[in-house]
Design goal:
Helices cover about 80% and strands about 0% of the residues. It has about 290 residues and is an all-alpha fold. Its main location: membrane.
């Protein structure tokens, strides 16, 4: 929603200001300039990125328009879920959660949190390391190193579409200049025309520079920034799980291990100690 609001503000400010200054909006409608800029940008995107990067970018683009996925409520659900699992482990032993980990869709614990269960990336990360805790012989240091490597891979994959779109945004003003130069060439080749007609050709050429800069910094660039911020939010979920599980492995009680995870969260989504305690208490009753 905020992305759409931002787009409306950009368009309204630029074109509204132009119109209020006495400009003619119709003069900015130059489909051939858009063809040159858009076509060159699309070609450069295909030329400069592998098929894997292109697929990752197209897959990530719809996320720009989606509402924030990781809210305070989802973090509280995550910590309540971790508390429930770790409390069961402390009471009945690690083997008691084997069935929950192997089939989270049928687990009485996991199914209490359908919003989390729908996030396959988070659930797989959590269950993979719980499975290693149940059946593996890894110590805390080895498990921490493995988690760090997976989170780093997650970030590297998430940065691919961000970099692709950022480079595309940086190229848009240059392609606008290309369109403008081609318009100037056309104008110079038509130097025999009356001054009024030459003025129109010059204006059309300048629109290319305008469109390239507007598209690059007003539209494409912000898309890359939004994707980068969403990547940071998804990484924070994994870091919360990492810190909580490592605290549990090191012998801390479930309530304290979950408190370790709470401290990792951004301040804008981090619940207070009392809020988390109450939420965990409700989970315990369930």
């Amino acid at each position: 929603m905020l992305v759409i609001v931002g787009l409306i503000i950009v368009i309204g400010s630029v074109f509204g200001g132009f119109a209020l200054g006495g400009g003619h909006i119709a003069a900015l409608y130059q489909p051939l300039e858009l063809l040159i800029i858009g076509g060159a940008a699309a070609g450069a995107f295909v030329l400069g990125n592998t098929q894997k990067a292109q697929k990752a970018t197209f897959k990530a683009l719809p996320k720009v328009l989606r509402a924030p996925k990781y809210t305070k409520a989802i973090y509280m659900d995550l910590m309540a879920l971790l508390y429930s699992l770790l409390a069961k482990v402390r009471k009945e032993g690690l083997m008691s959660i084997e069935t929950d980990v192997d089939n989270p869709e049928e687990s009485a614990i996991f199914t209490q949190y359908p919003n989390l269960l729908a996030d396959r990336e988070v659930i797989e990360f959590m269950t993979d390391y719980l499975r290693l805790m149940v059946g593996g012989n890894l110590n805390a240091f080895e498990l921490e190193n493995l988690m760090d490597n997976e989170i780093e891979t997650h970030n590297q994959e998430g940065e691919i579409p961000v970099h692709c779109i950022s480079k595309l945004a940086d190229s848009m003003p240059a392609f606008g200049i290309v369109a403008a130069v081609m318009g100037v060439i056309h104008t110079m080749a038509s130097v025999g025309l009356p001054p009024s007609e030459l003025g129109i050709l010059v204006a059309q050429a300048l629109v290319g520079t305008f469109l390239g800069i507007l598209l690059g910094y007003g539209f494409v660039g912000p898309f890359a920034a939004v994707l980068e911020q969403k990547l940071g939010e998804s990484t924070k979920m994994l870091q919360c799980i990492r810190v909580t599980l490592l605290a549990s492995i090191n012998g801390y009680a479930p309530a304290l291990a979950v408190e370790f995870g709470r401290k990792v969260l951004y301040s804008t989504e981090r619940p207070s100690f009392s809020e988390l305690e109450e939420h965990v208490r409700q989970a315990k009753k369930k």
